[in-house]
Amino acid sequence: MIKIAVDAMGGDFGLNSTVSGAMEAVKKFNDIEIVLYGDEKKINEMLTNKERISVVNTEEVLSMGEKDPVKAIRRLRDKASLCVAMTAAKNKEVDAVVTAGPTQCVVVGAHLLIRRLPQVERIALCPIIPNLDGNPRLLLDVGANVELRPEHICLLANFATVVAKEVLGYKNPKVGLLNIGSEPGKGRPVDKDTYYALEANKNINFYGNVEANEVLNSPTEIIINDGFTGNVCMKTMEGTAKTMSKMLKEEIKSSLGGKIGYLFMRKNLKRFAKRMDSSEIGGAMVLGIGVPVIKAHGNSNSFAFYNAIRQARHMVETDVIGHVLKALPKEGESDGFN
Q1: Worst-scoring range by mean pLDDT, 73-77, 131-135, 196-200?
Q2: N- to C-terminal Cα separation, the chain
Q3: Residue 282 counted as domain residue
Q4: Exposure pattern of 100-123 as b/e (b: 16+ CB <10 Å)?
Q5: What is the dihedral of CA 70, 233, 309, 302, to 10 degrees?
Q6: 8 Å CB contact between 179 and 195
Q7: Alpha-carbon distance values, 117 to 89, 110, 290, 292 (Å)
Q8: How many CB atoms are located within 10 Å of the residue 130 CB?
Q9: What's the rounded Cα separation, in Å, for the pair 274 and 311?
């Protein structure tokens, strides 16, 4: 049985999405148990199905606007729902953690409470993003680290390669460096150094540079760079998708022909929206730590949160961390790119 810790209090909608998502998950999967961390009284009021769902009462919630996540994690490590859930993962009481809590608190909590794998040196946020060919891609880092050195990116590329194989099912996933041009000499000095480090990395299938205009029609299964670059890229995609959706709705409503055309195109437009809908994926994986952690979007509804739980279950089921540990260099071994 796979045991998944859920931070029931995290996110914009709190219990309305987390409890409903948890109940839907146990209904769909008979091999999981869910532990909800949060206000026991409020959670039990919403639980209409308690089969394979238990509750651990916690006193505090980490604020979405937390200004000092390190201080907050240390101060509330035994009280806040996210902290207690992550501590349970560290103590192997649960197999994975799912939360829609504050991003930086999730990153700091993973560092301080669960701890990163010693071979990785940095952790990364890695969402699954859509692609024109219908096959999903991995994008990292999207915000855990503003800056990363070439050796950090190389080790994260190793980790992402295993995830792409075990979670997405790619046999030999290609790694692309997100950059401002396709040629090897493009970018900042750190991008140039990273390019050659990735090229020398024997543990990955390096393709070369990938430009931002290729991200949703990517020639590679993995797109990697530092958290500043990745975050700008991801939020640009999200903002563009939302704006285009609003513009399309305005144009449809602006004329009788548009409204009539919508009646004929309704199914196509719904399929298009589904392909771009982040709630279909679940959340971003926190790569670099010894336990699967899924960071669901802060505004996740119950369907999105269910998918985040599904994603965590799949990572445990396929033993992603075990495969990563086999692939990463052991202490004293070459890291594959020196």
Answers
A1: 131-135
A2: 41
A3: no
A4: bbbbbbbbbbbbbbbebbebbebb
A5: 100
A6: yes
A7: 14, 11, 6, 12
A8: 20
A9: 17
Domain C-terminal end among 252, 275, 298: 275
User: Does residue 277 have a cis peptide bond before it, meaning omega lies within 30 degrees of 0?
Assistant: no
* 270 exposure class (CB count in 10 Å sphere: 0-12, 13-18, 19+): exposed
Rounded to an integer, what distance in angstroms lies between the CA atom of residue 73 and that of residue 79?
A: 9
Whether 160 and 261 share a structural domain: yes
CA–CA separation, 130 vs 128, rounded Å? 7
283 part of a folded domain: no
Q: What percent of the chain has pLDDT over 90?
A: 64
- Which pLDDT score is estimated for 118? 84
80 and 209 housed in the same domain = no
Q: Are residues 220 and 297 in the same domain?
A: no
Neighbours of 337 (CB within 10 A): 22
Q: Which one of 226, 246, 275 terminates a domain?
A: 275
- State which residues form the domain around 29: 1-120+288-338
Give me the CATH number covering residue 263: 3.40.718.10
From residue 68, how far is each of 116, 147, 231 by CA, in Å?
A: 20, 19, 20
Helix or strand holding residue 258 (H, E): helix 256-276
pTM for this prediction: 0.88
Which of 232, 227, 226, 272 is CA-nearest to residue 248? 272
